[in-house]
Write a structure and sequence with these properties.
With 484 residues, the protein is an alpha/beta fold. 43% of the residues lie in helices and 9% in strands. It has 24 helices and 13 strands. It has helices spanning 10-27, 54-62, 67-74, 111-128, 149-152, 155-161, 181-185, 202-208, 210-216, 235-248, 253-267, 276-279, 283-288, 302-307, 312-317, 325-335, 353-356, 358-363, 370-373, 376-379, 386-399, 410-421, 431-439, 445-455; strands at residues 82-84, 102-107, 131-133, 136-137, 167-169, 192-193, 218-221, 294-297, 343-346, 367-368, 402-405, 426-427, 481-483. Strands 2, 3, 4, 5, 6 and 7 form a six-stranded parallel β-sheet that branches. A five-stranded parallel β-sheet has the order 10-9-8-11-12. Helix 6 (155-161) runs antiparallel to helix 10. The longest helix has 18 residues, at 10-27. The radius of gyration is 26 Å and the shape is globular.
Length: 484
């Protein structure tokens, strides 16, 4: 007698699969619970988080901003007494002539860290009177983006802007073709400089890199990120770093074109169907933000939170926790932005997916991103390439009326710097103030809003002078700007 094996039919298998799906969270609750107060669960896109500040959210949703407040919130910055420095006429001594050899740099990090490295590489080439080879951009270990310099930046524009400053070549001549990334990865090489200290002075390069370059005709510096000091530099070197940052590093045409398409669609949205009776009271409010938009850079730094030895409350009190989408939405609402505000989300990927930003979308239903504003065909050249995608977001951010970031980082710092240089309104959230406000569960909306407004009066793009050891790529004055 043959043994009997039970074989469920199709409908029974479907029922079993559905039951398993329902019971899965019961047997494995840790997968559906939050990893920490600042981090969503592994399956967070299945599990929309509940608002943590419900009383503030309900008040924000029911409160209408006044016309006067809207006029103030959208008002551009006034003259702050700083301007772009006039281009100094080039003397024969400042024009590059001769060359002590070739210099190569290998840059890691994301887009904005690499931009800083490029600026520093040009400066080091000037210090050494060397010929710079277009910097090599390493594959980003986080985003796995292998985009090259030529795929991100307009090379011809870069060379043209700097032609009277530094000698730059697209590639090495044939006699130095052996000096490649692969060559330095396979052994100890006498032409590689791997001991450059962080924020090294100009003298270090003259003492340690110049002799190698003179002996072999070439020197390759790796690692190179953050390897040039911000202090005690000649004014000409500082101005050169600024020139590279703000003038020479333009994105390739297809990035600018996609960015411009996004800006046009944000400024000129389709006309919504309007109910005359219901719209009559909000027309004046909507007019204040017509043709304008805010860029929100939203990034969750989950690694920093998960690896920290502190509790979430301690992190928050130190201002070290990134704002959640809910919290950044409440901040914007308290500052006076209403539900007719067009908000562009600049982010590689929101950790937690659409569920994580559902509360933010309730506050700002006109929130957009690259995918909502463009077709797959339009995005084809940047899809799956984090650096190119970040470049598009950077371009849109520079065209926005207001920029705000949920947490400090290279993108935040780069845009705070560039927008300060252009005198554009940029809101810098006071993380320590906001952490105290959000930890106070009894605070009412009116009190919360007043505290936010008072705490951010001088955090909306006002020029802050760079102090010793601070980055020229965060604070452009006084190195990159002149007093009017």
């Amino acid at each position: 007698m043959k043994p009997y094996y039970y074989s469920p039919n199709h409908s029974q298998r479907a029922a079993l699969a559905a039951l398993s799906l329902l019971l899965f969270p019961t047997f494995f609750p840790s997968l559906f619970g939050p990893l920490g107060r600042a981090s969503p669960s592994i399956f967070s896109e299945w599990n929309a988080p509940k608002p943590r500040h419900l009383h503030l959210l309900e008040a924000a949703l029911s409160t209408q901003s006044s016309v006067e407040h809207q006029i103030k919130v959208w008002a551009p910055l006034g003259n702050q007494g700083w301007k772009h420095c006039p281009e100094e006429p080039k003397s024969a001594s400042s024009t590059p002539k001769g060359s002590n050899g070739y210099i190569q740099v290998f840059l890691d990090g994301g887009l904005n860290q690499q931009k800083m490295g490029i600026c520093d590489a040009v400066a080091v080439a000037k210090i050494l009177n060397a010929t710079l080879v277009l910097p090599h951009l390493e594959v980003n270990p986080v985003w796995q983006d292998s985009s090259s310099f030529e795929e991100i930046f307009d090379v011809d524009h870069f060379l043209d802007v700097l032609r009277d400053e530094v000698s730059i070549v697209k590639e090495l001549p044939s006699e130095f073709s052996w000096s490649s990334r692969e060559y330095y990865a396979t052994g100890i090489r006498p032409t590689r400089i791997k001991t450059a200290p962080v924020h090294a002075p100009a003298e270090w390069y003259l003492a340690n890199v110049l002799p190698t370059m003179q002996s072999y005709g070439i020197a390759a510096i790796s690692p190179f990120s953050h390897r040039l000091s911000f202090d005690n530099m000649p004014e000409s070197i500082q101005r050169l770093r600024c020139k590279v940052n703000f003038q020479a590093l333009a994105f390739v045409p297809h990035i600018r074109e996609l960015g411009e398409a996004l800006v046009n669609r944000l400024c000129n949205p389709p006309i919504r169907n309007q109910n005359t009776d219901s719209q009559e009271g909000t027309d004046d409010l909507d007019k204040q933000g017509a043709g304008k938009f805010v860029v929100l850079h939203l990034r969750f730094d989950k690694g920093r939170v998960l690896k920290s030895q502190f509790t979430d409350e301690e992190l928050r009190l130190q201002g070290r926790c990134p704002l959640t989408p809910e919290e950044i939405g409440l901040l914007l609402a308290a500052l006076g932005f209403n539900n007719s505000t067009r908000l562009y989300l600049a982010s590689h990927k929101v950790y937690g997916g659409e569920a994580r930003i559902s509360t933010l979308r309730r506050l700002f239903p006109l929130m957009e991103d690259k995918k909502s504003l463009t077709s797959a065909e339009e995005r084809a050249k940047v899809e799956g390439k984090a650096s190119l995608s970040a470049a598009v977001d950077y371009y849109v951010s520079m065209q926005s009326d207001i920029f705000i970031s949920a947490s400090p980082g290279n993108m935040h710092n780069a845009l705070v710097c560039h927008r300060a240089y252009m005198n554009l309104k940029t809101i810098r959230p006071s993380m320590t103030l906001l952490s105290k406000l959000f930890l106070n569960k009894s605070m009412q909306w009116s009190e919360f809003q007043q505290a936010v407004l008072d705490g951010h009066k001088n955090r909306q793009g006002q020029i802050r002078l760079r102090k010793e050891k601070q980055s020229i790529y965060t604070y452009p004055a006084p190195d990159c700007m002149c007093q009017a």
